[in-house]
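step: validate -> pass
step: tokenize input -> pass
step: predict -> running
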Amino acid sequence: MIESVKSILDPKKPVYTTWGLALISTTIIAKFALGYWTEKRGDTLQSNALIASGKDSRMDSLFTLSTVVSALLFIFFKIHLSGWLGLIISFLIIKSGIEILNDSISKLLGERVSATLSKQIKETIAQIPGVKGVYDLVLSNYGPNTVIGSVHIEVNDTMSMNELDTLERTIANQVYERYNIFLTGIGLYTKNTENTFVQSIQTKIRQKIEQDPLIKNMHGFYIDPSKKKIQFDVVLDFKEKDANKKRNEISKQVKTLFPDYFINVTIDREISD
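step: predict -> pass
step: emit ->
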């Protein structure tokens, strides 16, 4: 950028040779082909370094092409545009570098799982007999073909420990076989199936709080009548910036329905679709 500005302010007559332009034109083809191949290999191997290198090489070939165009314009029409083209190229290089850097940082910090993948995994788990609901899917990418995650499932409160153990192993195996993802943790929410009193309380609370458009869903409901305690999880939309404020609002709403109970609300974020 600095050299281009100098060239614009103090233009000097460039010197081009036929052999020089022919050599540069050849490198354009070679750079573009090499960049295209490198980027494709990067996609295949899931290597960000190769993808970035391929993009850089292809961009470089386009910049070199602009140099040839600038030379031809000067040779045939005496139009000196190398400084201006260099300035444009410098901005494109900076833009490309920022995009590559942002992509790498996003993956390092952890980016949102694709909606298609998360929905497929949840549908796979939900179809397994014994699973009544799938929530809180979290996946962490640790490099090519190394993804681990955790999930919460809802099950009937009548299931035995042996049945739960078998169910968790089935879920982990199916997710790994279909998506090559290790589920290192499968949490449990129990669904009350026999106590109609608890079911009626849950229904009233759900109808009350899910009227709020910023509340995506409620799950993990648990009530201890002997201790007068109600607890559940609520998934908030990211549009809601103040989670603590929303938690207090929900607690007050439920408290108006059941003033004798202690209300414990856990806020979850919509980490995956």
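step: describe -> The longest strand covers residues 181-191.
step: cleanup -> pass
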